[in-house]
Amino acid sequence: MAVDDFRNARSISRLASANGLRIDVLIEVDVRTHRCGLEPGKPVLALAKEIQSLEGIRLRGLMGYEGFAGSIIDLEERRGACSRALDSIIRARDMLEDAGIDVEVVSLGSTGTYRISGSCPGVTEIRAGSYVLSSAKHKKIVPEFEVALTLLATVISRPSEDRAIIDAGRTAISYDQGLPLV
Predict the structure, then answer these.
(1) DSSP codes, 131-172
(2) What local confidence, expressed as pLDDT, does residue 106 receive?
(3) Contact 145, 139 (CB under 8 A)
(4) I want to staple 28 with a disulfide (CB 3.0 to 4.6 A). Which of 4, 81, 106, 128 is the partner?
């Protein structure tokens, strides 16, 4: 379970303690995605120290999500963006360990960065998840994953030599990740 706020950790602690449980947590670090997570540095250390004072909850490590880098088509640009994100979580890990706080888990991942993150020393877990729903856009970034869905469509009109109309529009084909492969 991931936490990025002491109030959340305290709630988990209360529920776990009331039920005789011990719940493992990871502190979520914002590795430049600007979604969830604490800024790397003192906020992470402060939360880690606070978590150690709670019953029913055990800090196992850190997690981040570098998904912003996972959609960069150019491999070198993606590698650079991912490396900067990885550097921030590894620095956070080192800071905790320098303070005597054990960090067993450093969890990262996105489908588009799994190879980069997975080869980073210190990363213990990869959470690449959207490959199971792999789209045409994913295929450009991680060609080793097949497109997850194919759709049979019929040409219903050919108004000109360079245009065909099919019976599968927005209700059948999402294009939020780019146009489908034909």
Answers:
(1) GGG--HHHHHH-TTSPPS------EEEEEETTEEEES--TTT
(2) 96
(3) yes
(4) 4
Q: Which residues pair with 125 in a beta bridge?
A: 107
The answer on pLDDT for 180 being more than 80 is no
Task: Please give the Cα distance from 117 to 94 (Å, whole number).
Answer: 17
What's the pTM value of the predicted model, to 2 decimals? 0.81
Q: Which two tokens stand for residue 134?
A: 């792999």
Alpha-carbon span 22 to 58, nearest angstrom: 7
Q: How many helices (H) and strands (E) does the chain have?
A: 6, 7
CATH architecture for residues 2-133:
Alpha-Beta Barrel (3.20)
Strand partners, 145: none
Contact present, 31 and 66 (Cβ < 8 Å): yes
Token duo for residue 175: 């294009």
Q: Long-range contact list for 179-182, CB < 8 A, 24+ apart?
A: 179/136, 180/135, 180/136, 180/151, 181/136, 181/139, 181/147
180: number of Cβ within 10 Å: 18
